[in-house]
Amino acid sequence: MGPSGSGKSTLLACAAGLETPTRGQVVIGGRDISRLAPDPLTRFRRDHVGFVFQAYNLVDHLTVIENVTLPVVLAGRQPDSAWLEELLRRVGLDGLESRLPGELSGGQAQRVAIARALFTRPDIVLADEPTGALDSRTAEQVLSLLRSVARELDQTVVLVTHDAAVAAGSDVVLFLADGRLVDHVQRPTAAQVAARMLGAGR
Hints:
The protein has helices at 8-15, 38-48, 64-74, 81-90, 106-119, 136-153, 164-167, 190-201; strands at 27-28, 31-32, 49-52, 124-128, 156-160, 172-177, 180-186. It has a three-stranded parallel sheet, sandwiched between helices. The two termini are 13 Å apart. The longest helix has 18 residues, at 136-153. It has a single domain (8-201), classed as Rossmann fold (3-Layer(aba) Sandwich). The chain contains eight helices and seven strands, in the order H-E-E-H-E-H-H-H-E-H-E-H-E-E-H. The model has no long low-confidence stretch (mean pLDDT 87). The protein is of the alpha/beta class.
């Protein structure tokens, strides 16, 4: 969490290997990805990192199913149809499998992006405002899904949010300001998050 311009999205991009940090390391599953050459980094990211972008980054001419399974298809592997069916059901996309992104609401498109991030069963899921386009009920369903899948697959989930209630469901909240870590709280309440956010914004 942190005010606009504090470096939240940049931190996620560095953690995903989409940007190279000017110093320090990015270590995922014991592997320093900040030292990988472009091709090995692309393969590692495809297999081990799930990313939910603010802008969804769906491919316009691909259906819901094709967008969700795209990372696996690009890796030359056969999609797990049973896991695909379960995941689409759990994110509330069953019945929409053949639709194109242009035929979806913002909330539905966000759920496609989340399903795509989860489909490869990555080690870590990085989500930039994953509930920003969702109503409160759907947002809670999506967060519940992220939590349950993370527990089942022993994943780490790192998300950016401006919502104190969303942050309150996490294990640890980190507060950024001007590109620096300025505070953190473990097992927070929504009131604690709101109070710390005020401090981080000053």
